[in-house]
Structure formats: structure tokens, C-alpha cells
Write a structure and sequence with these properties.
Layout (H helix, E strand, L loop, with lengths): L2 E3 L2 E3 L11 E4 L3 E2 L8 E4 L6 E2 L8 E6 L7 E4 L6 E6 L2 E2 L10 E3 L1 H6 L6 E4 L13 E6 L4 E5 L4 E2 L10 E2 L2
Length: 169
Amino acid sequence: MANPMYGQNKDDGQLYDGRAGVIVSSGARTLLASESGSTILHNDADSAITLPAAKAGLNFKIILGIESVSGCNILTAAATDCFFGVIPISCDDTDDQTGVAQKLTYAVAIAAPASYDAMKFVAATATIGGVAGECIWLTAVSSVAWHVAIPYHATSANDPGDCALIVAR
């Protein structure tokens, strides 16, 4: 119980130190709104992470712990929520090979959310990628849309193509 002393509140040893939670996922996982701000180490090549319903301000950082294969997805809570952003793609094992970024605006995504409610990763494909160590930042900007930021999105294929990471389920 807080104990005021000279206008200050004593914490009784319960100060919050500012660290967000770290979640290690080794299988399918549904995130909770109360876990917003957490870093998720997705340490499974072929299972999905499902986000809570979008609500402006919710945010997560997801790190792919191992190279992804089919089934490694990030999904919205429902087909009424969507993803948007500019997602570049490059090759992780050959210098100077870049593909064409996926450029998906907020307006386009919310007009047809069921068309943009999943991110599907397969590291060995030329168009969707998902190599170990990749970081995905997700921020809900409204009650229907998640902004996606991936500063270095890579494929282990030798010739990256037109990025198509954000798709329909």
C-alpha cells in the first residue's frame, strides 16, 4: 500500500522498472492486449502468432528465432482487422540483391481488410521471406489496422522478387 511521506508516495518495494515482458513462443500463440509492449521470440518454424483485436496504441515486437517455413504466420484476431505498411525484401546471403517492396497503404488495407489480414513467412521463397533474426514491429493505429515495420526483411532464396508478405488468410 502506498504510504505518503512529505508529499511523495513510497513504493513499498514495488517500483515498476520499465521493462516490457519477453515471451518465448515455441508453438501457436494468441497474444493478449494486456501483453502490449512485449517482445516475442517466435522460436517455431511453422506455427502462427495471432494478435489481439486492433486497438490504437497496442504494439508488439516479434523476432523470428529460427528460419520460417510454411505455417509461420502472424494473423489478425479476425478478418475485419488488417495489416499495412511498406515491406522491403532482399536476399540474406548475396550482396546487393533486392526485390520490389510491398507498398500497402492504410486506405487500401481498411477498404478490404480480409485481403490483408495475414503475414505468411517462408524464408526460402523469393517473395515472402522470413529469415532467423528478423524483427517485425507491429503497432495498432486504429480499431482495425496494424502498421507493420520490418527494417530488414529477407529471403534465403537467391533472387528476391516482388514482396508479397501481407496477404489474405
